[in-house]
Amino acid sequence: MSEKTIERPTTDEAALAKELEAEEKAAARQASLLRDGWADLRKRPLFILSALVIVCLLALAIAPSLFTARSPFSNGFCQLQNSMNGPGSGHLFGFDVQGCDIYTRTVYGTRNSIVVGVVTTIATTLIGGLLGMLAGLIGGWVDMLLSRITEVFSALPIIIGGLLIMSIWRTGDVWTVSFIMAILGWPQVFRIMRGEVISNKYNDYVMAARALGADSWRIAFRHILPNTLAPVIVITTMNLGVYISAEAALSYLGIGIQSPNISWGLMISDAQDRFLTSPHALLFPAGALSLTVLAFIMLGDVVRDAFDPKMR
């Protein structure tokens, strides 16, 4: 009577099967969260409204010449005889103290505000996300060192830190302002990414991958990162409006974007002393700034409600 040999899976094969099964479950869970979140977003009127406003703002930033035939950088654009004249035919927003068309300056000012917001958000996400992943994944003295550095930067608010640094730097352009705000703004993303990495790195699929000898980079980018994106997306979306308002505040105080660059904060600063006699010079750029910040904050709120499991 012949004996049948029963083949049993080896330890490595069993661990590999366990890893693959855990990976599939994690991927399915993440895909379900993103799919459900996107389906929920499309049903929210605030998302549609804020998205439409942001699309219009992006169009203004990318191609301002489509919305106005004038250029604020051309010779003869500002005429002192038009100083502080109110809205009229062909000049929807009137003129500022230098006799420049406020509508054209408001349209072209959109580009700087959007660029500062987007560049700063991308930079803070990359810096904070990478450092947070390193701190959470490696732990030990690396985590302790990065956490202490983060506490130092967190103690310095963006406006106060920007006042201090810009008063020394004195180079007011879009890239300088974006760089300074990115240096001061990354700790928030760091804390969120670090917490998410720590909560995910002991899951079954991560432990199985580690047991099979997967290197730290493979574990970080293939197993952990996809499951930490939702909260990071939420906070970066909300930060867009925060950075735009911070740039306007720095420019209003005279240390952000400087002339001949155009900034809504600069326009508000120039018009504040004449608000009672010529309110139009302040109300239109202030309205554009408020609408932009409100649109990004509303978008961040609905994205948070849709993608944050704790809010569902």
UniProtKB/TrEMBL annotation:
GO terms for cellular component: plasma membrane. GO terms for biological process: transmembrane transport. PROSITE patterns: ABC_TM1. Gene3D superfamilies: MetI-like (1.10.3720.10). It is a multi-pass membrane protein. Belongs to the binding-protein-dependent transport system permease family. This is Peptide ABC transporter permease.
